[in-house]
Amino acid sequence: MRIWKSAFLLAAAVICVFMLTACGEQEINIPEYVNVEFNGLDGKGTASIIRGNLDSAIEDIIIGDADDESVFAKLNMVEKIESSVKLELDKDSELSNGDTVTLRISADNEKAKKIGIKFTGIQNQTFTVSGLKEVTKIDPFDETVFNIESGEGIYIDFTDISPHACIQIRNTLPDSNPLSKVNYHTDTNYVYNIKKGQTINIIADAPYSFEKDGYELTATSTTVTCEKVDEYIRSVDDIDEATMQKIVNQCNDLYESKFESYSNGYDICYKNAEGKSVYREYMESISDFTYQNEYFFVLKDGLERRYGSGMKENGLFITATVNLNNVSYTYGEKTKHNDKDRIIYFYVFDIVKKKDGEIQYKADMVNYGKYIYVDEDVFKAEVVNTYLDSFEKVTEQKAEFK
Prior knowledge:
Low-confidence stretches: 1-22
Strand content: 25-35%
Mean pLDDT: 88
Radius of gyration: 44 Å
Shape: rod-shaped
Helix content: 10-25%
Number of strands: 26
């Protein structure tokens, strides 16, 4: 049964071809059935070929009013004839109103003739570009809306503390402003690694709807400089006189409460020249407090900041001499020693200058060293030099305060 049906369909197709040929060729003037459509923005328009009417004309001639079984036999023929007509544009993008595009037409009339079709108008057709939307150009980095300090617009904020600041971009424009739909972002993922003075690239990505709505960005990138940001200071000179006096005053208070007073007991320890440890309990008094030197450190370039306790980014050390009066080196010792010009010290770690230029200061930032050293050289060996692997000592000078 299947063999018989296939033979019938083949015979029907042959008969159809014979009939079409016998009745004479039917002409199809290709330019009458095709068109070129233009879309998009002026200067960025696109062109596309509309050939649906041509294919319909071919199908009407070949299939006509054929019944279902005949249609099945003719579909392959339709596809071959349709594919024999080639339509091609010389350009189809980046178009402007007034441009011309050429539609190249070719057709296989030898193949078409076998089924009674003759294609005419096989020659290039010229179309003038029109109907493209006029472009509204918008500057995404207009200074009236970009990197502003107040009002509606795009804010560039630097948070955390330099050299580990990060960038935050906020778009507060209303929906009525096309720039509210623009995506502003950095070209790199800056996370806790921005330094004051560093230049950052900002990218503006237009949404897909921009072209349809007739908008175009005049630029896609710009740079901003990290300026208004808190920062870890890099020099002792960054500490203003008023803040330094607050630090000194706190050092004075710590000396009076922790050294001059006996209340600390075992909190303060003195290492004498023989290496013996003597706690504050075995000193009758500490007196003659005089500032000596200040040392300032910053983390070396290229090193990551330290975490946990201790100095992370910078540190200020202040030393002073004191006299230890009537010290007993051993329990019950009757001989008393007077050790003069011994070294005590205070320190402040990770001093921050706020973006408004004010030094961030609280009294509890100032701490005291719990050891008393024989002299400055021992202090440097025991304290200062232990930081030199990771920190640069940028200041070592006489302490000019009281």
